Amino acid sequence: MTSPATPTTAVSVLAPAKVNLILRILDRRPDGFHNLWSLMQTVRLEDTVSVRLSDEHEEIRLHCDAPGLAVDHTNLVYRAAAAALRRSGRSVGLTIALGKRIPMGAGLGGGSSDAAATILALNQLLNLGWTVKDMMEVGQALGSDVPFFFTAPSAFVSGRGEQVAPVRLVGSKWVVLVNPGFPVETKWAYHRLSSTRAAVRPLSPAQAALAGAAEVSWNTVLPLMENDFETPVFDAHPILRQIRTRLLAEGAEAALLSGSGATVFGLFADEATAVRAAASFQYDTALTVFVVPVGSGPLACRV
Ligand SMILES: C[C@@](CO)(OP(=O)(O)O)[C@H](O)COP(=O)(O)OP(=O)(O)OC[C@H]1O[C@@H](n2ccc(N)nc2=O)[C@H](O)[C@@H]1O
Ligand SMILES: Nc1ncnc2c1ncn2[C@@H]1O[C@H](COP(=O)(O)OP(=O)(O)O)[C@@H](O)[C@H]1O
C-alpha cells in the first residue's frame, strides 16, 4: 500500500547573478524606458530564496541576512511574492528567507533574479501550473531584467527587457567579477548615457547577424562584446576602467562593465588563469572579487 504524498510546504531556489556579454542601449521610448539589445548570461554566484507556507493567514514575512536591505514591501522578493499571490487569487501565509551573496547595485541583476526565483518557488509550492510566459508576465512588472532569468542560462534580450530569446552558448568560461564596493544606480546610468551621447549607434552588422541565433560559439561572441554604459560610467568612476585594463593584462579573453555597473567582469578560458587574475586584486581591500564559472542550467526549484 502506498501512503498519500506529503504536500510540499517549502521550496528553495538558487537565484544566479547575470552579466551582459553585449549591452547596446538604443532609443528612449515614450514611456521613459530605453529599448535595448543584450546578450545576457548567468554566472554561478547565487542568492538563495527559500519559501515556506506558514500559519499566519495572508501574511508575508521576509527574513534577510544582508544588513541594510529592507525586508518590507520595497524588497523585490516581497513584491514578487505579493504580485504572484495577487495573480493566483490564493490567500496563504508565507515565510521567506533571502540569503544574499550577490552585491547590490552591482549590474549583476541580483534583485531581479531574487524576484524571478520567488515567482518560480510560488508556482511550485502552490501548484499554480503557470507557464514560463505566465511567470514572465508577473515578473516584468517588477523590473526590466526579471524575464531573462526564466530563460537562463543565456538569452538575447530586447525591448525594455521583456523580449527574451534563449540561445545555447557552446562551451564554458570562467568569470572573474570585480566589485568596487560602491553601487551605481541604474536610473542614474541611463540618464547619464542619454544626456552625454551625441546619437544612438545602431547594432554593428555582426551583432545584427547574431540576433536570434539558436546557438552561438564563444569565439563568435568574444569580439562582439561591448557595453554602451562603459563611457559614461567609466568617466564618472575611472577606477572601473582601471579594473578592466588589469583584467585584460592578467589574461582575460574579454573584460567589460556588467549592466549599468558597478561590477567589471573578465572572461577566462580556464579556472587557473582566472584564479591568478583574481589574486592580482588581493591588495585592494575596497574590492570584492569572485571567481565562478558561467551558468549552465535553468532556474530550478529544490524541494
Ligand atoms: C541596465 C540593465 C541591463 O541588464 O541591468 P542592471 O545594470 O540594472 O543590472 C537593465 O536594463 C536594468 O534593468 P532593471 O534593473 O530591472 O531596471 P528597472 O528597475 O526596470 O528600471 C530602473 C530604471 O532604469 C531605466 N531603464 C531601465 C530599463 C530600460 N530598458 N530602460 C530604462 O531606461 C529607467 O529609468 C528605470 O526607471
Ligand atoms: N532582493 C533584493 N536584492 C537586491 N536589491 C534589492 C532587492 N530588493 C530591492 N532591492 C533594491 O534594488 C536596488 C538594485 O538592485 P540590484 O538588483 O542589486 O542591482 P542592479 O540593478 O544594479 O543589478 C538595490 O540597491 C536595492 O535598493
From TrEMBL:
Keywords: ATP-binding, Isoprene biosynthesis, Kinase, Nucleotide-binding, Transferase
Active site: K18, D145
EC code(s) of this entry: 2.7.1.148
Gene3D superfamilies: 3.30.230.10, GHMP kinase, C-terminal domain
Residues given in the record as ATP binding sites: P103, M104, G105, A106, G107, L108, G109, G110, G111, S112, S113
Keyword ATP-binding: yes
GO biological process, one term: isopentenyl diphosphate biosynthetic process, methylerythritol 4-phosphate pathway
UniProt-recorded name of the protein: 4-diphosphocytidyl-2-C-methyl-D-erythritol kinase
Record organism: Nitrospira moscoviensis
